[in-house]
């Protein structure tokens, strides 16, 4: 298995495509059966020309990609670079022996009902469950019905990793752009399944830290939390006094230090525990969702997801320092728990799908997430800044916000 990546900032589409194709092929040193391309929204008016130009250099390569408000790739000096709001193209090529690469484009009206047989989803993708495929998914933010797609893929392929993001545009809100094989796709989702001698591992950095104690939802309706009980046991399973969410939140905020109280005014979120059986919770075990609003009269809170009685939740805070610490904790954990040798720097790769709300706007300096990742894993990295990030939490795949999701492709050890 071999991977390569090249990044171009040439303002001419023809020149940029030529540069990334020639450099990536030269670095790969062999034929490529997979290509992933991410192109800046600065080229929006020329999106329809991208794939025909790439196919001139890569006629036999399976190609998928999308447009982004920011692009991630490797500089000539071997360091990753995040290019926001400027012309850029990032091209990753892979030579994947003993791996079957299957590209797909799915429109929303093609999706089976969520109560359909897993076979219907397998027929849609064109890959049987027994192949145990790994998925890279890129979707239009408006037309893809991405939550239904992810739920269906989890149902049909429960043991398969799924990563990706929603295509994004620039500040003017231009077309996001999806690419599959030789064409521009105007809607839905595109992607590839990778089956065979390959592993896709994931890191989902949601950029939050828990505050206070966890609670169990004792009453909820749709996305409204009506009543909570504080979990008081060491295994975080035994409940205490029941109270309204607003009472719990007010008590929590009063006990925060001044810096965190100020942060809670604008950066307060709710984390939902996804694994019902996990007792000792740690950072990264929560699905982070927005705190949408508060009903002072009822003492209820509304969050950006459905809730039900019995779920455990915990309030979270997010800022630049927390985001950096969260990613570093997850990278250290990955390095400790998943050991693999890189015989060279190009026998594995990483794909980075980061929220448009991260990057230089969050950290105050460029290349933060990608450089931090590279300080732990010296492999090529590419990707883009998304309108939403796709990655697993607690065994299921979700659409996230304000997140950096990394997919690490490598051979089995």
Automatic annotation (TrEMBL):
Highest taxon in the source lineage: Bacteria
Membrane topology label: Multi-pass membrane protein
Occurrences of domain FIST (ranges): 31-232
InterPro entries (UniProt xref): FIST_C, FIST_domain_N, UCP018953
UniProt KW keywords: Cell membrane, Coiled coil, Membrane, Transmembrane, Transmembrane helix
Coiled coil stretches, renumbered: 317-344
FIST C-domain domain mapped to chain residues: 245-393
GO cellular component terms, semicolon-separated: plasma membrane
Chief place where the protein resides: membrane
Subcellular location: Cell membrane
A family per Pfam: FIST
Name the record gives this protein: Histidine kinase
The organism of origin for this protein: Okeania hirsuta
């Amino acid at each position: 298995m071999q991977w390569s990546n090249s990044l171009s900032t040439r303002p001419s589409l023809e020149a940029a495509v030529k540069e990334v194709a020639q450099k990536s092929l030269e670095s790969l040193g062999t034929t490529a059966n997979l290509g992933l391309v991410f192109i800046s929204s600065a080229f929006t008016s020329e999106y329809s020309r991208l794939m025909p130009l790439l196919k001139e250099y890569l006629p036999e390569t399976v190609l998928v990609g999308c447009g982004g408000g920011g692009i991630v790739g490797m500089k000539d000096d071997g360091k990753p670079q995040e290019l926001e709001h400027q012309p850029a193209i990032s091209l990753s090529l892979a030579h994947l022996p003993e791996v079957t690469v299957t590209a797909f484009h799915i429109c929303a009206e093609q999706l089976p009902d969520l109560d359909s047989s897993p076979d219907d989803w397998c027929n849609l993708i064109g890959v049987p469950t027994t192949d145990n495929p790994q998925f890279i998914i890129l979707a239009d933010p408006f037309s893809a019905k991405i939550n239904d797609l992810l739920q269906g893929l989890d149902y049909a392929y429960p043991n398969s990793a799924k990563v990706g993001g929603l295509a994004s545009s620039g500040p003017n809100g231009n077309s996001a752009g999806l690419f599959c094989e030789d064409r521009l796709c105007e809607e839905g989702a595109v992607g590839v399944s990778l089956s065979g001698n390959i592993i896709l591992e994931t890191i989902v950095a949601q950029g939050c830290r828990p505050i206070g104690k966890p609670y169990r939802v004792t009453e909820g309706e749709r996305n409204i939390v009506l009543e909570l009980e504080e979990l008081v046991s060491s295994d975080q399973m035994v409940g205490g006094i029941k109270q309204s969410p607003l009472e719990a939140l007010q008590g929590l905020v009063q006990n925060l230090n001044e810096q965190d109280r100020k942060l809670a005014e604008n950066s307060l979120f709710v984390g939902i525990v996804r694994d019902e059986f996990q007792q000792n919770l740690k950072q990264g075990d929560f699905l982070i969702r927005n705190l949408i609003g508060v009903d002072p009269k009822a003492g209820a809170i509304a969050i950006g997801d459905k809730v039900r009685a019995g779920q455990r939740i915990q309030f979270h805070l997010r800022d630049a320092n927390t985001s950096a610490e969260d990613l570093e904790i997850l990278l250290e954990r990955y390095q400790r728990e998943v050991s693999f040798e890189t015989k060279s720097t190009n026998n594995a790769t990483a794909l980075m799908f980061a929220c448009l709300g991260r990057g230089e706007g969050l950290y105050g300096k460029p290349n933060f997430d990608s450089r931090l990742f590279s300080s732990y894993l010296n492999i090529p990295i590419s990707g883009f800044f998304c309108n939403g990030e796709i990655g697993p939490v607690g065994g299921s795949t979700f659409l996230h916000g304000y997140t950096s999701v990394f997919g690490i492709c490598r051979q089995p050890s």
